[in-house]
Amino acid sequence: MFCASCYSEQTTSREKPRRDWFIVSIAGQTVFGLLGLWFTAYFLGKILLELPSNFHEGTVWQNFIP
User: Fold this and answer.
1) List of residues 6+ apart from 62 with CB closer than 8 A
2) How far apart are CA 10 and CA 34, in angstroms?
3) DSSP string spanning 5-57?
4) Helix or strand (DSSP H, E) at 4
5) What is the CB neighbour count within 10 angstroms for residue 60?
6) Most buried of the four, 1, 3, 23, 56, by CB within 10 Å?
7) Whole-model pTM?
8) How confident is the model at residue 66 (pLDDT cuts 50, 70, 90)?
């Protein structure tokens, strides 16, 4: 049981202090996303460079013909 003034104090929502983490969060996500894309492109290029040259020339299928 609450009196009217105690009930209104309990039920009123207190406004939280506003934080400006949103901008920092977006900036961090952008940086990590770009780094992820860069590393993906880098390692994909590294893998493609390690393939044999006959694969790039389109003659790799000749290795399987007896």
Assistant:
1) 54
2) 47
3) HHHHHHHSPPPPPP--HHHHHHHHHHHHHHHHHHHHHHHHHHHHHHS-HHHHH
4) helix 4-11
5) 13
6) 56
7) 0.53
8) low
Q: Rounded to a whole number, what is the largest CA-CA distance in the chain? A: 95
**Angle at CA of residue 63, ends 60 and 66, nearest 5°:** 145
> What are 20's two structure tokens?
């400006």
At 30-44, the pLDDT tens digits run: 999 999 999 999 999
CA distance linking residue 23 with residue 31, whole number of Å: 12
Return d(Cα 4, Cα 56) in angstroms, integer: 81
Tracing tokens 């049981």 back to the chain, one arrives at 1
**C-alpha 22, offset from chain centre:** 16
DSSP 60: G
